[in-house]
Amino acid sequence: MASIDDNVFWKLNVVKKQFPFVKDDNLELLYDHARKDWRESVINCQVPMLLVTANQSPYFDGEFAELLMEKNSNLSHVAIDQSGHVIMAEQPDKFNQTLLNYIE
Fold first, then answer.
1. Which H or E element spans position 77?
2. pTM for this entry
C-alpha cells in the first residue's frame, strides 16, 4: 500500500504552517461528520456523483459504493488500489486522473 506521496507531504507541511489546524476548535465538526449516515443523501442525489474509494481503506468498504449504485443511477464508482483512506494524498496521480476521466 502506498503512503502519502512525498510531493503532497511537503506541500501539505507548508500549508499547515500557514493555516494551522486547531483540533479543539474543529472537534465538533469532525465528530458530526463521523456520526452522519450519508446513505440517504447519496441515494437521493439528483445529479451525477462519483464515488472514489480505496481498496485498502481501514474505514470504508468500497463494495458499499456498488450497493449504492444499485439504488441511484446517477452514481459512478471507481476503486483505487494500493491506497488507504486518504486517496488523494496517497495516490494523487491516480486520483486526479480518475477525476479528469469522470469530468470529461
1. strand 75-80
2. 0.76
